[in-house]
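Progress note, sequence design subtask.
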């Protein structure tokens, strides 16, 4: 039931009849709805201004609040700290408030109906303390003392270190000991009685117990230096580097030990058995002048001190061991070289030197100089590695005429020795030679197995005359499908001399693990073209298939078998190239072993070619084999009782052979 107030039809709003009554179903004319009564409670007020929380003051404080309400024409009542609500207007001010926690509440009224209260709580606290004494930052001390005060008398203090819980501390100050290196933060707050504490005053500082970080720019560990390289290392000449530290670097010191004597540099000579550190010039970029010492190995130790007296401890020094080497290596010696004159167009040179760890640079005629250190012709001849440092290089198919070969050595410090030169003459080949395949091509082998036939090349001159004692070089590919030669050769290259009949027979050749076709060449000086051996590393192929109906005595079934060929070349299965064994599962019913035999198998009667890379089984008929040429399996109708073969399951096992290249 809705309440209305009656007024005169032409009167002012608010001229009320003395009684209030209920009206249901009466026309609106002559009446109005009391909106405040009809709408229920007004919305809670909104506090639009209030004191700072907390409010810091050394005495009593005042507070002012502003507020409003979403509903018009409301009145307000206010309360402080639980006191009785009293009519108020915005803004509402209070004074003489003591330190502690306070709560302001305000309600909105529409007529006799009140909103829910809106409240704001805040604290009046002592002023923030002032830290009057603290450690330096950074500092090397692991203890710290603090003093502090507050503008409000009679307060107590609570302290915290590194975010620990605040605890009561003396008004005279606080001291901490045994602090770890790193960053720390001290905080102190003031409190009056049991009232809330003040805002905290803080101080952050750093304890630095770490010595500077030192780096050596020159010399570098493990390096060799000749006179020019040492002179270019630092300016002025000597030892140099950098040092860094957050608190600053005050000094850098350098010790240098001569490895050959074990003595330390004193500033004038390597004469001290005890470790001697000499002060370097500069700090963050430091240098210690040291004229290039005598040839030999040396060790440098560097330590530094920062502004807090942190010094690099023993065992943590920055160090480098280096070698001074100003002596050039000796001229190389050619321990192997072609005779002069010679008909050998593939000469080889082997080179040694008295200087260890040298590298060699070689040059032929007017060609470019190249590094020829070690087994540069990659023939894998371990016997060549002898006599200290060795270089070796072999040339191929040089033209007849005069040639000069030269080489020099360079040591680890970059010193270059004198050049050794050898000149010789290659005579023109008197008669042209021809080299052809005698046997061993074409053929294939299963990967990682030996080829069944040796590779034999024949060398002739003048068309048919055998050439004995000719050096024939057999060469297989170094990558992909290939193989290796057995002893006395190794790897993919083998040199064999021809016999009296001009035949050069390579040692056993073994296929590697990569399938595919490839060529092994045989060459001889004086021949315009090599002999080419066509070889193939094969992979197994598969044969599969089954009978389509059960067998009974006298029944023959053609077997349209399926085959694969994963090899990279086409493969031909010859007529008769597929065999069959049968497992009957019952020894009383032997497939082929009994007399008479229970089964007869007729193999493929025509050759079939399977394309390369056929990895999915394909049927014989799809490869062009007619039904008349398919394998046939027949159950013989023998004069012997064959009941023992009833209801058996036959397992067919196929084997086959094929060839390809």
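Output:
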């Amino acid at each position: 039931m809705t309440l209305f107030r009656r007024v005169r039809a032409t009167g002012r709003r608010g001229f009320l009849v003395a009684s209030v009554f209920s009206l249901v179903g009466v026309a609106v004319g002559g009446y109005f709805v009391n909106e405040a009564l009809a709408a229920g409670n007004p919305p809670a007020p909104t506090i639009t201004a209030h004191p700072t929380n907390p409010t810091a003051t050394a005495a009593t404080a005042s507070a002012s609040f502003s507020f409003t309400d979403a509903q018009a024409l409301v009145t307000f009542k206010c309360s402080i700290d639980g006191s009785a609500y009293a009519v108020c207007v915005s803004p509402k001010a209070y004074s003489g408030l003591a330190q502690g926690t306070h709560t302001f509440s305000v309600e909105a009224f529409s007529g006799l109906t009140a909103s829910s209260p809106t409240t704001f709580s805040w604290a009046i606290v002592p002023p923030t303390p002032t830290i009057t004494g603290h450690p330096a930052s950074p500092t090397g001390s692991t203890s710290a003392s603090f003093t502090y005060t507050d503008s409000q008398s009679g307060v107590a203090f609570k302290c915290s270190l590194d975010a620990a819980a605040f605890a009561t501390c003396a008004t005279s100050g606080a001291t901490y000991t045994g602090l770890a290196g790193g960053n720390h933060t001290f905080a102190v707050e003031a409190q009056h009685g049991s009232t809330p504490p003040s805002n905290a005053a803080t101080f952050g500082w750093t304890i630095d117990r770490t010595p500077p970080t030192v780096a050596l720019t020159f010399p570098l560990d493990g390096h060799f230096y000749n006179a020019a390289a040492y002179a270019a290392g630092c300016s002025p000449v000597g030892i140099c580097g950098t040092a860094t530290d957050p608190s600053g670097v005050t000094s850098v010191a350098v010790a240098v030990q001569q490895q050959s004597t074990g003595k330390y540099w004193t500033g004038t000579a390597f004469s001290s058995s005890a470790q001697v550190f000499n002060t370097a010039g500069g700090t963050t970029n430091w240098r210690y002048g040291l004229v290039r010492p005598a040839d030999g190995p040396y060790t440098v130790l560097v330590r530094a001190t920062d502004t807090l007296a942190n010094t690099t401890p023993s065992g943590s020094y920055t160090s480098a061991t280096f070698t001074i080497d100003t002596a050039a290596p000796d001229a190389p010696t050619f321990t192997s070289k072609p005779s002069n004159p010679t008909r050998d167009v593939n000469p080889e040179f082997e080179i040694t030197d008295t200087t260890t760890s040298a590298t060699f640079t070689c040059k032929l005629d007017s060609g470019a100089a190249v590094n020829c250190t070690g087994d540069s012709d990659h023939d894998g001849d371990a016997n060549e590695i002898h006599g200290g440092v060795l270089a070796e290089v072999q040339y191929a198919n040089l033209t007849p005429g005069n040639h000069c070969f030269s080489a020099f050595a360079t040591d680890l410090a970059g010193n270059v020795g004198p050049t050794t030169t050898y000149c010789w003459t290659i005579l023109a080949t008197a008669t042209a030679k021809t080299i052809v395949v005698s046997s061993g091509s074409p053929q294939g082998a299963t990967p990682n197995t030996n080829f069944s036939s040796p590779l034999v090349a024949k060398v002739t001159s003048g068309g048919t005359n055998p050439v004995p004692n000719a050096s024939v070089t057999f060469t297989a590919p170094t990558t992909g499908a290939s193989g290796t030669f057995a002893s006395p050769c190794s790897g993919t290259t083998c040199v064999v001399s021809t016999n009296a009949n001009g035949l050069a027979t390579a040692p056993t050749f073994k296929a590697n693990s990569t399938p595919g076709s490839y060529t092994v060449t045989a060459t001889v000086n004086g021949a315009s073209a090599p002999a080419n051996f066509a070889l193939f590393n094969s992979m197994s192929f598969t044969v599969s298939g089954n009978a389509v109906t059960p067998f009974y005595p006298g029944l023959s079934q053609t077997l349209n078998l399926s085959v694969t060929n994963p090899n990279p070349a086409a493969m031909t299965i010859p007529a008769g190239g597929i065999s069959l064994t049968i497992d009957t599962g019952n020894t009383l019913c032997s497939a082929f072993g009994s007399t008479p035999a229970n089964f007869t198998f007729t193999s493929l009667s025509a050759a079939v070619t399977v394309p390369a890379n056929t990895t999915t089984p394909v049927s014989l008929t799809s490869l062009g084999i007619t039904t008349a040429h398919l394998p046939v399996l027949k159950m013989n109708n023998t004069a012997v009782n064959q009941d023992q073969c009833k209801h058996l399951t036959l397992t067919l096992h196929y084997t086959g052979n094929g060839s390809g290249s």
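The chain has two helices and 58 strands. Work on this subtask will continue into the next period as scheduled.
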